[in-house]
Structure formats: C-alpha cells, structure tokens
Design goal:
There is one protein chain. The protein is an alpha/beta fold and 365 residues long. The protein folds into two domains: 218 residues, Isopropylmalate Dehydrogenase; 128 residues, Isopropylmalate Dehydrogenase (3-Layer(aba) Sandwich), CATH 3.40.718.10. It is built from twelve helices and twelve strands. Helix 10 runs antiparallel to helix 11. The radius of gyration is 21 Å and the shape is globular. Bound molecules: 1,4-dihydronicotinamide adenine dinucleotide and magnesium ion. 1,4-dihydronicotinamide adenine dinucleotide binds next to helix 4. Magnesium ion binds next to helix 9.
Length: 365
C-alpha cells in the first residue's frame, strides 16, 4: 500500500517559518514511528501570485483534490493589499475551500494546563478543557438569496437570507457524529429553533440523522444564545458542538479565546468522504501571515503543529499519535518554553520559532 499523501502549502509571511517546524515533526513521525507520508509542497497566496500571476494555479488545485490532506500555513500581506480582488492571496484559500467543498469547519478549543493562567476565565473553568466546535461553512445566511441593499420608498433596506436545505444540514450533522465517535461520543447541536424556521428544520434533521445512523452518540439541543452563556459559564460540559455558519462564526471565536493565544489555535475544514473513506480535508492554523513579525523567527509554530495533529487524528485515524504530539507540546509548555506571544507582561526571554520546534522534537524523543 502506498503512503498517505500530504500537500503542504506554506504560503506567505510566517507561513513558511511555522511550516518548516511542521516538516521536522512530520519527518520525526516518519523516522521514529514508521509513519511515512508522501509529502509534496507548492505555492499558495501572494508567493503564488509572484511566481505565476495567480494565488492558486490549476495544477495546485488539482493536486489538492487528489491528496489525502492539505496542510496550509497562511496567506496575505501588505505587499498584496493593492492587488485586484480577483488575484488577492485570500482568493487562493477561498478557491481551495470552495472547490474542495469543505462544508465542516472544525475549531477545537483546547486548554493546555501550563497556559490556563493565560485565559480571561478562572483557571478551574478552563484547565483541561478540550471541546470541538463544528461550524457549517458553505451555506446559511452568508450565502442565502435574496440578498443585497434595496430601496423601499425613502429608505434603504439591507437583506440577507438564512437558508438551509435538508442535505446541507444532514452532511454537517454526520461530520459531527463521526467526530464524536472519535472523541467522547457527545454532540450538542445549537440553533434558534424558538424563533427561526431554519432552526426548526436544523433541529429536526440533526435528530433524524442521529436516530437513524448514530443512536450510540449522546445528542442534545440548545438555543445558540444559551449556548454562548454556557460556553463561558462551564465550557467543560461540552464535547462536540455543531452549529450553522453564522452562530458557528461567533461561537468558535468565543470558544477559541477561552484558551489563550492566536499562536496556539489549529483548525480543519472537512468535506465529503473520498473513495478511500477519508474526508476531503484542509488543515491550517487560525492565525494569518503576521507581517509584523514575519522573517524574525518570532512566530509560534504550535498552531500549525497542532493542525498537523488534527490531520493525524481526523484524516489518518492516528489519534494515539496525535495525542503523543499534543503531550509533547504540553510538556514543553510545562517546562516553561514560551514564544513571544505567550509571554504577556512577564518580561522573560522568549524562544524562537526554531527553538520551540527543537524543544517539541526533544519532548517527542
Ligand atoms: P494575523 O493572525 O496575521 O496577526 C494578528 C496578530 O497576532 C499579529 O500581531 C501577529 O503578530 C500575531 N500572531 C499571529 N500568528 C502568530 C503566531 N503564530 N505567533 C505569534 N504571533 C502571532 O492577522 P492580521 O494581522 O489581521 O492579518 C495579517 C495578514 O494575514 C493579512 O494579509 C490577512 O489578510 C492575512 N490573514 C490570513 C489568514 C489565513 O491565511 N487563513 C487568516 C487571517 C488573516
Ligand atoms: Mg470569525
């Protein structure tokens, strides 16, 4: 059998810096754990525009459709701000998400004990926290028609439409139940069925998919506003949360920030299962290209490394190896290794991007 394939797209700014550390981690798993990947690397974003006049070539797009998982760094930067909208670096990322039809956006909120003091919430509320928000990414009010600003008599009216089909709800519900089976088997679905018809349909379809296909998973429903309160009151009551595009946008940002720095936050976007059963998948840190620190060796590589851990768990069924990697990160944080973004006001000497990577490799050993 051939090795699983990975397409690496480091991108712009700090993207290549943090991805270099991921490459070392991938090599470690190949050498020490016999977990070999066929890795190829390509351009996306501003660097692709510089080389080819487009932020994503058709060849790279085709490659992304073929591989088992795509790992992306970040795109964009001030150098490209003046470019025409059609060739902006972000368009490369949007094209990947759209053409791969990545409808389930996974945003974990995981708190490493050593960083629990970093949270704005009390330590015992966040210590040990490990939840997963799944946001529907390709439909809902950001895409629904009719939309626009129209004139009604003397005033303007802004219109957006929340619209979900049964199949759109069903497929993201399945992603959530599949995810739950790889975690602690619990899903909470959030909508506003009390005031929105699309919410009533959402609740019904999630329940139907559950009863027909995933009766073993524990399912609950919650209104999204109550969910926001519960997420800040006692987030550890949740495991997997599944919700629509708009509520998911808000709730995933809220949940992510329970736990610390942008430099720590991974994400995944998943689509339909491929012929080999693996979902189409793109893994990337939540952060951008951080032009203010690019090229200075200051970037925290952990968000990108944790994105690779998510790939191990959700594309390659290597949850045990993902845990090994997460535990190595926990260890270096407990030992006091901090990139600049994790230091706050402490005035200690930060480690560089490469030093953090080296410490994580040492912890893996
Ligand atoms: P950003 O996430 O790049 O940076 C925000 C702040 O967080 C900066 O102060 C940065 O130094 C810091 N930061 C981000 N990642 C860090 C890391 N790994 N380690 C240490 N510090 C880190 O967001 P910003 O400044 O709004 O956008 C910069 C560029 O990135 C823009 O061109 C934007 O369009 C692009 N962008 C790209 C994204 C992507 O590729 N998915 C997502 C967000 C922004
Ligand atoms: Mg957002």
């Amino acid at each position: 059998m051939s090795n699983p394939s990975l397409l690496i797209l480091p991108g712009d700014g700090i993207g290549p810096e943090v991805m270099a550390e991921v490459r070392r981690v991938i090599d470690w798993f190949g050498d020490k754990r016999g977990l070999k990947f066929d890795v190829s690397e390509d351009l996306v974003g501003g660097c692709a525009y510089d080389a080819h006049g487009t932020p994503l070539t058709d060849e790279t797009m085709a490659k992304a459709q073929e591989v088992d998982a795509v790992l992306l760094g970040a795109v964009g930067g001030p150098k490209y701000d003046k470019l025409d909208f059609s060739v902006k670096p972000e368009r490369g990322l949007l094209r990947l998400r759209k053409e791969m039809d990545l409808y389930a956006n996974l945003r974990p909120a995981q708190c490493f004990d050593a960083l629990a003091d970093f949270s704005s919430l009390k330590k015992d509320v966040v210590a040990g926290l490990d939840i997963m928000i799944i946001r529907e990414l390709t439909s809902g009010v950001y895409f629904g028609e009719p939309r626009g600003i129209i004139k009604e008599g003397n005033e303007r009216v802004g219109i957006n439409t929340q619209r979900y089909t049964e199949s759109e709800i069903a497929r993201v519900a399945r992603s959530a139940f599949e995810m739950a089976r790889k975690r602690s088997n619990k899903v909470c679905s959030m909508e506003k069925a009390n005031v929105m018809e699309s919410g009533i349909l959402w609740r019904d379809v999630v329940q139907e998919i559950h009863d027909a296909e995933y009766p073993d998973v524990e399912l609950s429903h919650m209104y999204a506003d109550a969910g926001a309160m519960q997420l800040t009151r006692w987030p550890k009551q949740f495991d997997v949360i599944v919700t629509d595009n708009l509520f998911g946008d808000l709730l995933s940002d809220l949940a992510a920030m329970l736990t610390g720095s942008l430099g720590m936050l991974p994400s995944a976007s998943l689509g339909a299962p491929m012929a080999n059963g693996r979902p189409k998948a793109l893994y990337e840190p939540v952060h951008g290209s951080a032009p203010d620190i690019a090229g200075q060796g200051k970037a925290n590589p952990i968000a990108c490394i944790l994105s690779f851990a998510m790939a191990l768990r959700y594309s390659f069924d290597k949850g045990d190896e993902a845990t090994r990697l997460e535990q190595a990160i926990e260890k270096v944080l407990a030992e006091g290794y901090r990139t600049a973004d994790l230091l706050g006001e402490e005035g200690k000497q930060p480690v560089s991007t490469t030093e953090m990577g080296t410490a994580i490799l040492a912890a893996l050993d």
